[in-house]
Amino acid sequence: MLIRSTIAVALLLLSPISAKGAATPEEVHADLTRAVASEAEAQSKYVDWTDKKLEMSDEIRDMKAMDDWLGFQNKKYAKYIERQKVVIAELERRKEEAKRIRMELEPFLETVVDTLDGFVARDLQFLPEERQARIAFLHTSLDDYRLSLSEKLRRVFEALLVETEYGRNIATTTRELPIDGNPTRVSVFRLGRTALFYLAADGSAAGVWDKASSSWRPLSQEYARTLRRARDMAERKRAVELLDLPIGAAQ
Predict the structure, then answer these.
(1) Exposed (0-12), middle (13-18) or buried (19+): which is 42, by Cβ within 10 Å?
(2) In whole angstroms, what is the distance from residue 6 CA to residue 89 CA?
(3) Which of 36, 145, 161, 184 is most buried, judging by how many CB atoms fall within 10 Å of its CB?
(4) pTM, 2 dp
(5) Other beta carbons within 10 Å of 120
(6) What average pLDDT does range 120-138 have in this prediction?
(7) How far is CA 204 from CA 169, 180, 211, 237, 241, in A?
(8) Best-predicted range by mean pLDDT among 4-13, 159-168, 231-240?
(9) What is the residue-wise DSSP string for 114-175?
(10) pLDDT tens for residues 16-32?
(11) DSSP letter string, 53-64
């Protein structure tokens, strides 16, 4: 730009003189002043234009970067939306499945409790009050509209778990039984769900529950000694050992 300005000024210096010849120094000075002002104005406009060009170039670059970013985001969000559609569809499916299970579960729980009630009635006669109270509690729970289905399910499962544990362990309880027509305090030994025995407190009598007749059948004194050892094992007073008891014969 400096070279262009110098050339312009030189031309201005030479052309008026050569064209007019008789121009006064004042006129030449005025022409030079206008030429310099015009050149300065052009230079200023050129600088402004250059600045605007750079500014617009920056804006175009930023807009292009933003356009690329928005394109990327659109693709990402399109994938997110597709995935969310899959998730929503799966949730809808689970909702319908839960609805179907709920419609089937409550009648099923009623059936389970009725079955458990019959099973307890036919089972060995141990802890009769406790077990019947549990069954009654389950019936009351299932008839309680304020209880959630999950709570009803939990209570039924808990009762089933307790009943299952009876078949895996041994236990002794003390109760009164009519022996030879006399109320007698006895220890009742339960061998899982396999057999139920009684032993009088003084060891004078022993017996086994006969499932077929639903009654107690007396055993010989030989079994009374064995039952004392069984009772001690159940109460963790002696180590576990093999015992000879009339399990099959009594039932």
Answers:
(1) middle
(2) 78
(3) 184
(4) 0.60
(5) 19
(6) 91
(7) 26, 12, 23, 21, 23
(8) 159-168
(9) HHHHHHHHHS--SSHHHHHHHHHHHHHHHT-TTS-HHHHHHHHHHHHHHHHHHTT-EEEEEE
(10) 444 445 678 888 889 89
(11) HHHHHHHHHHHH
